[in-house]
Amino acid sequence: MGALRAVLSHPGDVAPLVRVKMMANAAKRLPKDPDLAYCYDVLNKVSRSFAIVIQRLDAELRDAVCVFYLVLRALDTVEDDMSIPIERKVPDLLAFHEYIYDANYSADCGEKHYKDLMKNYPRVTSVFLGLKKEYRTVIADITKRMGHGMAKFIEKEVMDMADFDEYCHYVAGLVGIGLSNLWGVSKMESAEFVGEEKLSNAMGLFLQKTNIIRDYLEDIQELPAPRMFWPRSVWSKYAEELDDLQHEENREKAVQCMNELITNALSHSLDCLKYMSRVKEISIFRFCAIPQVMAIATLAECYGNENVFKGVVKIRRGLSARIMLKCNNMLELASGFKHFANELVHKVDPKSDPNGEETMARIEALEEACDEIIAKETERMRKEQIEDDSIPMATRIVLWLLCFGYFLYAWNLENVRESLGVNRHAGDPLVDDAQKVLATICIISTTALVMAGKKR
Fold it and tell me: Contact 94/147 with Cβ under 8 angstroms?
């Protein structure tokens, strides 16, 4: 009923929803290889949105990114399963990069589709071992670094913003770095993407911080033990304990705490735009851009929203579908960022929010960057449109020759009329004079057209 109400409230969402539904159905078409088919089937089950964007990648990268995602989801499943004793979990995290070469490794952990993934992990390993060596090297390296980072934070509390950045680097920044390495070694993007860590890390941090902010209630109510990722240095300013923020009596302070974390997350937005400006291949661009716009849309939805502490807060499906269809170039990306930055502007109240002024400063810097990109891309596309619409030189010359012939006829130069069997004395003098004027205008105009074409 809620979905129907949302569609009726936003009828413009219908067409995007239908198109994305068709894309989702296309993503469910499985390859013939049984192990590869399993990988794409479970990918659809654990993340419909990622399944769509991964399936739209070029064939050169599609399988490698699919396996990369599943390997890291499996690693994440081990980390997230709070029922696994620490003395067993830590060694598993440290050795997980070795398991991807072990055709017999599987595990009994996780829930629902993740449990199925862990049970059938040898099928993922089978596909991994069939990838190009350079892809396997990237995946194994990132898995090792991530596993070691996760192990570090199993018993380590996220104390301050430095810890927060470090944890997010391990669980998401490394994903961005790994993907950049895949782009580079595939030769579908510049080799400069290999080893590009600063901007790649920022891409991951922006997404992960958004998820951590949005998932507060789910994480704090996790059984048998809560998962606590909000940094103590922030939440301790608003409550005695992190789980106090979920209680009604602390709602105002809870929202202020969340807003401070949203302000911090926005600090990565400019680097995300810089990274995206370097991506040239269209399928890679879409793959990277869609989650980024989803993230800032989610931040705009969460800001000042006490429902984050009551249940699940998500952007509506129709808006999600619109975003998936409008992330094809820098103009659309910057326009999307600016749209949601503008939504944030209307929610921030510097007078009532202790971090309001800093939030506004971050948003204004983001809007300024978006305006610059929009202006630049609009001008570039305008010039390309002019070039696309320009008349080919061959056509210009043909037009000039036709006008030249008409000019000769109108002025009867070289006795053109007689050669065509026309009596030069039989015409109306006024009509002849009019034709001379028209022919002169035509020859001047087409001469200018030819000369303009030479300057292009």
Answer: yes
Residue 247's SS3 state is coil
Query: Cα(229)–Cα(166) distance, rounded to whole angstroms?
Result: 11
Q: Mind listing the pLDDT tens digit for each residue in 251-296?
A: 999 999 999 999 999 999 999 999 999 999 999 999 999 999 999 9
Beta strands in 322-379 (DSSP E): none
To the nearest 10 degrees (0 to 180), the angle between helices 198-214 and 174-185 is 140
- Cα gap 341→359, rounded to integer Å: 11
125 and 102 in contact (C-beta within 8 Å)? Answer: yes
Catalytic (active-site) positions = 167, 214, 227, 287
Q: What pLDDT, on the 0 to 100 scale, is given for residue 426?
A: 58
Contacts of 304-310 with CB under 8 Å at 24 or more apart are: 304/255, 304/259, 304/347, 304/348, 304/353, 305/255, 306/251, 306/254, 306/255, 308/213, 308/214, 308/216, 308/217, 308/255, 308/258, 309/216, 309/217, 309/245, 309/246, 309/251, 309/254, 309/255, 309/258, 310/217
Q: Could you tell me the fold of the domain covering 15-385?
A: Farnesyl Diphosphate Synthase (1.10.600)
CA dihedral 10, 16, 18, 23 (to 10 degrees): -150
Please, which residues have CB within 8 angstroms of residue 63's CB and are 6 or more apart in sequence? 36, 39, 127, 131
Question: Which letter does DSSP use for residue 192 in this model?
Answer: G
For the chain, domain boundaries: 15-385, 390-455
pLDDT of 425 above 60: no
Nearest to 55 by CA among 47, 39, 66: 66
Per-residue pLDDT reduced to its tens digit, 186-215: 999 998 889 889 999 999 999 999 999 999
